[in-house]
Amino acid sequence: MAEDLSADRVSRQPALSQQAEFSQEAWARNHAAYETIRAMPFNAELADGSLSPERFRRYIVQDAHYLIGFGRALALAAAKAPHPDRIVQFARGAETAIVVERALHGGFFRDYGIDAASFAATPLSPACDHYVAWLMASAYAEPYEVVLGALLPCFWIYAEVGRDIFSRAAVDNPYRAWIDTYAGEEFGEAVAAMIAATDEAALEASPALRERMQAAYAHATRLEYLFWDGAYRDRVWPL
Predict the structure, then answer these.
(1) In terms of Cα–Cα distance, which of 174, 133, 164, 166 is closest to 150?
(2) Where do the Thiaminase-2/PQQC domain residues begin and end (predicted)?
(3) I need a surface site. Which of 95, 162, 173, 185 has the fewest CB within 10 A?
(4) What whole-number distance in Å separates Cα of residue 30 and Cα of residue 26?
C-alpha cells in the first residue's frame, strides 16, 4: 500500500470517495500541516528506525490512553448518526479502537515492561489530555457533522503517515508492527469508510456548518502534531 505522497495527493482523493468535496477541501487546506507532521522528528526517526525506545515508549503509553477517549467519541458519533449503517460503522470503530488497536499496544507493552499498574499510574500528557478532552467535548456538544470533522484526522493522517513510512522503512525496522498496522489494507478500508461518511454528512450541511466541520478538522490536525511532538520532546505538566 506504499504510494507516492507528493503534493498531488489532493487530486488523487476521489479514488477514496466519490463524494469527496469536503474531504478534498479539508486535505487541501491542511496539506502544509500534514507535510510538517510527515517530516517531524518523531516520524522521520520512526521511519529510519533510529527513534529511541524511550520516546516510543512514551508515545505508546499515551496512545493507549488516547484510544480510550477516541473509542468513547466514536461511540457518541454512533449514537448521533442518522442512518443505521453509520451507527454500525462507528460502533464497530469504537470496538476496534478499544480492542484491536490495544492488542497492538499490548505487544509493545510486553516488550517495554509496561504492566497494568504502571500504565494506570502514568498521567495523560498535556497533549493527550487536551486532545481527549476536546474530542469528548466535541462528541457531546457538537452536531454529528462536526463530530465527524473532529474524528477524521486521526484516521486519515495515521494512514498517510503509515503509508509514507512503509514506503521508506527497512524490513528490520524495530517498529515494523506499528508501521504494518497503519499502512495495512484493513486500516485503509476503515479510513476510506470514515472519509465517505464525513463527505456524506457534509453534503446536506449548510455552508456555516461545513465551516465548523473544517475548523474541527484543522484543530484535530494540530493536535495530531502536538501528540507526536509531545512524546518526542517529553512534554509534561510543569506543576
Answers:
(1) 133
(2) 41-233
(3) 185
(4) 6
Instruction: Return the number of other C-beta atoms located less than 10 Å from residue 60's C-beta.
Output: 21
Q: What is the pTM of this model?
A: 0.88
**Which residue type, as a one-letter code, is found at position 196?**
A
Q: Which three cell numbers stand for residue 22?
A: 469536503
User: Distance of CA 223 to CAs 28, 29, 130, 217, 220, Å?
Assistant: 18, 16, 8, 10, 5
Q: Say how many C-beta atoms besides its own lie within 10 A of residue 168's C-beta.
A: 11
Question: What is the per-residue pLDDT for 83?
Answer: 95
The residues, ordered by sequence, that sit 6+ positions from 9 with a Cβ below 8 Å of its Cβ are: 27, 31, 160
Contact 217, 150 (CB under 8 A): yes
Q: How far is CA 217 from CA 22, 135, 189, 199, 214, in A?
A: 11, 11, 20, 13, 5
**Structural contact between residues 221 and 30, judged by C-beta atoms closer than 8 angstroms:** yes
Structure confidence at residue 31 (pLDDT)? 97
Cell readout for 181 is 498496522
> Which helix (H) or strand (E) is 164 found in, with range?
helix 144-168
108 pLDDT higher than 70: yes
Position 96 confidence tier, pLDDT thresholds 50, 70, 90? confident
C-alpha Rg value of the chain to the nearest Å: 17
Structural domains of the chain, with CATH: 51-233 (1.20.910.10)
pLDDT above 90 as % of the chain: 75
pLDDT band at 68 (very low <50, low <70, confident <90, very high): very high
Cβ-based neighbours of 174, under 8 Å, separated by 6 or more: 49, 53
